[in-house]
Write a structure and sequence with these properties.
The protein is mostly helical. It has 14 helices and no strands. Helix 1 runs antiparallel to helix 13 and helix 4 runs parallel beside helix 7.
Length: about 280
């Protein structure tokens, strides 16, 4: 029996190792192509740089200058941090209310949040663009409100599952000690929600940082460009692409999110498992 389990474990390890290599391979290819001269990237995209093809950091300096990368990085960072903070704050409070309030309104509200997760973005993007323009949300501050709406469904769903596992007696004891509902939430409930908050924060950060379509539709891209939009502008007219600079900018774009994910990935499984508890 143990021998069979050992063989099965080895087989699964080999399979998942192969899958991991397949997923990592595109990132590695982009990385070493970012150090090759533009003419050689298209000719031999899978070959490593050598004395003839190596360009040093020329692609990086060229890409930074052409895309105004630093300003785009600032806009992406501001939008991501602001959106994730607002999503975590508002949805955690909303999930706490929905879970503790046993009314028909709260149940209806919960199902509306869950339903929003299955509505395709393409169904609402035209209306969203017009509405954002009418409400003057075509700026980095305004798009944070839009992201709150789109990110609330998953966040409320995960937070609600976790709040159900929090003993009600803890909150009742806080109320008896004189805490107001807001004090109870911020001093008692929110610290307990930390695993799920980190998990939701990671998922929302990866989505917002890499998002291209929503900023393109909502933002005034003549003034504000996030990193995905700025990289897209390296594609010129008539199909011309500065492929070297694009590879370099892709590397700079994915480094922060990879570091962020690796440093906090252990919390994802904890948060998802905690949020899966049924009340």
């Amino acid at each position: 029996m143990n021998e069979k389990k050992g063989k099965k474990g080895l087989l699964l390890t080999i399979i998942f190792s192969i899958i991991s290599v397949i997923y990592i391979a595109p990132i590695i290819i982009i990385l070493y192509n970012s150090f090759k001269k533009k003419a050689y990237i298209a000719k031999s995209p899978f070959s490593l740089p050598n004395e003839q093809t190596f360009s040093g950091f020329e692609n990086y300096t060229s890409g930074i200058n052409k895309t105004s990368f630093l300003s785009s990085f600032g806009y992406s960072l501001f939008i991501t941090v602001g959106s994730v903070f607002l999503i975590l704050l508002c949805t955690s409070m909303c999930a706490w209310y929905i879970t503790r309030s046993k009314s028909k309104f709260s149940k209806c509200l919960y199902f509306l949040f869950v339903f929003s997760m299955i509505v395709p973005f393409q169904m609402v993007m035209f209306t969203l663009s017009k509405t954002a323009d009418f409400l003057k949300l075509t700026n980095p501050v305004g798009i944070i409100i839009v992201y709150l709406g789109f990110g609330a469904g998953l966040a409320v769903f995960m937070f609600s599952g976790f709040v159900k596992a929090v003993p009600l007696e803890i909150e009742e004891a806080a109320l008896i000690d004189g805490c107001s509902p807001l004090q109870t939430f911020f001093m008692i409930v929110l610290p307990i929600l930390k695993p799920t908050a980190i998990s939701v924060g990671i998922l929302e950060t990866m989505w917002i940082w890499n998002d291209y379509l929503l900023p393109y539709l909502v933002l005034n891209i003549k003034k504000y460009k996030t990193i995905p939009i700025a990289i897209q502008y390296l594609k010129g007219g008539y199909g011309s692409i500065d492929i070297g600079a694009m590879m370099a900018m892709l590397v700079l774009a994915i480094i922060p999110i990879i570091v962020f994910y690796i440093s906090l990935q252990k919390y994802i499984i904890k948060g998802v498992a905690a949020g899966a508890v049924k009340g």
